[in-house]
User: Fold these one by one.
Assistant:
Number 1:
Amino acid sequence: MKIKLWGVRGSIATTGPDTEIYGGNTSCVTIAHDDYVLVLDGGTGIRQLSGSNYPSHQRIDVLLTHLHLDHIQGLGFFSPLFDATKEIHIWGPASSSQSLFSRLSRYLSPPLFPVLLRDLPCKLFLHEIGNSQFEAGPFLIQSNYIIHPGPTVGFRVTYRNAVFTFLPDHEPALGNNGIIKESRWISGYDLAEGADILLHDSQFTPEEYSHKRGWGHSTINDACLFGSLTAVQRILLAHHDPSHTDTFLDEMFNSFKKSAGTIPPASLAKEGTEIDLS
Amino acid sequence: MASYEIEIILNRQLADCLSIPVFITDTDGNLIFYNEPAETVLGKRFEETGEMPVAEWSTVFKPLDEHGKPLHPEELPLVRTLTDEYPHHKKFYIESLKGERQHISVTSYPIISRTGKFLGAVAIFWKLKEK
């Protein structure tokens, strides 16, 4: 089970010398086993799955946590969608009012995009999910709705004994007193419990969060508290704010570490990172 | 034990921010959360009791009509919501185990998930001023 981070920036792609260490592409992670590739989120990072990175497997599963633009913007530039030999399965959170097709078509249609979703050459299958379990290739996947504006799910991807949990946009601390420290009352708990790696939202500093409660994101502090409560082995802190430069991220993380108590090993997610969980 | 669905968790977080008594039950009527203002109605603290089975918390106070006659459970908004999964509202009296009587207004609503699944119910109590 090989994990690669293709985009860990939040909100909007942010290029330039100030973000070259942690990267500027928005949410996209792949999990590969043999030649099978599972794609988590379709942010701008997904565009890099071309050329020598072009998935060789005939079937590709793309799992979308939600349909905010930073998680789907790269779909229009995901080469396999334009390859008639490919069978693409897109899994996304169900809404109570509109189909996944209808909601994805808002972006993949003029005037925002020249090609209609229904005209894509690949064999396209859409799957609406919520609190669901399903298989994709060799992977067992659990999805649950989590706290973030609009229908949003997180994913727990299991292969044999290895578990990767993907919660790039998540605000488990939403409320008067932050995260309720009882497992039954923690959003996303079942997805993360005991995972080998948890990739979690850590967009804001505590000061920023005080002005942005309800926006659906977390601080490093809450991400690590969540990782600690769920007893994960390792935390990757992601969804970096577009205004946070590499220098600022390092300072923010170092400042947090000085005051942090006992937490699982944590690091800032960096675009291009590869992890072998075999 | 699996965690609650986020619709339940968010209802608790909302209740925790309100100054009116709020009770949250699962689909069987078991009391899974009540906020601080509700503690004064129940005379118990959530930190001390934790979740309460329906058989236990339903006996804490006695619902009465305006003539002081006991109300049938099926006349109570929360019971009706748990039965038919619709919102309900009613004004009535409650008498605590200490014999204290209060005129209250109760509104209950079902918690139905995005996928249409019935997850539980919320009851909001409001103490009415005597005329």
Note: Chain A has a mean pLDDT of 96.
Number 2:
Amino acid sequence: MNAVVTRLAVPDGYAGLLAAVLRDGAGRGEPEWLATRRHGAFDRLRAMGFPTTRAEDWKYTNIRSLLDATFTLPRREPVPEVKSLIPHHLEDENELIFVDGCYAPEHSRFEPESGLHVVSLEDGLRNGDGEALRQRLAESLPGDDSPFVCLNAALSGCGVYVRVDRGVTVSKRIHLLFLTTGLQPGVMVSPRVVVDVGAGAQVRLAQSHIGRSGAAAFTNVVTDLHVGDNANVFYTKVQSEAPEAYHCSFVRSRQAASSVVTLLDFTIGAKLARNDLYAGLDGEGAELHLDGLYAVRGRQLVDHHTTVDHRVPRGLSRQIYKGILNDSARVVFNGKVLVRPGAKLTDGYQINQNLLLSRSATVNTKPQLEIANDDVKCTHGATIGQINEDQVFYLQSRGIAKDAAVAMLSRAFVEDVLFLVHDKPLQESLRALLATYFGK
Amino acid sequence: MLTIKNLHARVVEGTPILKGISLEVKAGEVHAIMGPNGSGKSTLARIIAGHPDYQVTDGTIEYEVNRRRQNLLDLEPHERACAGIFLAFQYPVDVPGVSNAVFLRASFNAVCRYQGLPELDPLDFDDLLKEKLAMLDMNPAYVDRPVNVDFSGGEKKRNEILQMAILNPRLAVLDETDSGLDVDSLKLVAEGVNRLRTPTNATLMITHYERLLKYIRPDVVHVLDAGRIVRTGDYSLAEEVERRGYDWLQGAGAA
């Protein structure tokens, strides 16, 4: 009898990457506990291995080609110019720029604001934020048992720690830009973003991953949002990696009572992208708006796995994921909404809608509700549709060529998600990025 | 301007609908095509606009403007629109997510590009739009709403005429523009169409009833039955149809 292979061994090269990270860390005076943490995460990863498509959560996403590729760690080399890599430069924001996995203070710009603390992970571990950061990194969070979160914990070299004091409204958007230049082929970048938002505070964050074509990089990022009582957080993730890149992302958000979190996951790049997201409504009356927008073509694969976890009463969640697929692109949407025992008066809504522009594109969508008590209001659904031929002809009959008509209708299809982005300059930059999908 | 000869057409791979239609529309003329349900009136309108559901199996459609003669059937639907043909839809299509303003400007500029004319920027286009809205006595709030979404029947038809006013076509084909309109809306739409008439453009009206023709007087009236033109006359033919119905004309084309 043949045993079913459900796990893939951690590639041999990864142990070498860990050794190099530990050496580098020791040289830069990384604290002892961090090295221990790296070892622990790597041991857990080795024990569990990477999933095959036999694993339920990886049914449609085969990562063998990712594991077969050889990756190198970021080299700290000065890069003369990065502006050309940033397609839609946003004025009036604080930008922290990372080039090929290394923080580049010379390209970043940051105007201090009172009550706002932003440090690169390596600085944060050395200076006064070290203890708070250590505590945050030591907390166990859902997703800790994911192989890619373990890999990130073992290898993470760059990252950001953002802390907003209680009651502070941060005026400027904070934009974390992770750029892949292609100067260092096969680079594996493992950023860790930790965000602490105090009670009653308000902040806008954007996290962009942008790659130049030709950069077969692997980004494996983990973002943790800790949101205090009554706080208000807008977080937008933009993934526009190179067409040959791999991208794994895990966003974990935990919200305290009466907080409002608005998350947008925008995906247009990478060959293979896996977006895991966990949103825990831990405090009563927390409100979550979770939106996704994706536009893929060629042989791109995007796999969304989201969990919205209503743990206590009176939570509200609204999830809208919409996307456009062309050519042989594939999309997976697996969206779980959990309503825990006792989480009464939960109000949950989830929808996934897909527009197929080609007969060879594929969507596997699975919205799931797991409700463990009465007295809740939850609805969900999914649609997969094609462009409406009557609409195409109507636009054609007004002088608009067929491909332009299809582009206009496709953009209209996702327009309601863009419309939900209240930050207008950001909305415009996303619209411009989406336009590149239809560009010739 | 428009010369149709012996046109035969069917729904793609379906049964024949048009069985040999010939007609000629000259610049400055208004023609009406009347006929009972299922006679092929709307099919003719859609074929002129290039609807992909239909297949021409025989015959020709020639279109001539500015002394340039083209085989219409060789042109894509958007090329026909850019060359000056406008179809006012019997059932205008909803386009959620696209505002009227964006749609109208994209349409106007596509036609300008095709004709080698300069495009209008949003501000200049806005002025043009305001002028046409005023001409058709339309509420400016129209333009920010998504195209035809939640429009009443009358609003949709007026929106068609607004598009026509913006694009300023040489040949307007109005497909049952009167259907579903109350008398007031009908008058407004007809007034709009009449204001757009010039000696260099032409109108082809498809209608079941004579009532639209009271407001837009045709020079020529054709009666279509079972895919053929069974009679052609002047306005008095429409009045006769109004009085006697279509029965007395049916079968006449086969003779």
Note: The radius of gyration of chain B is 18 Å.
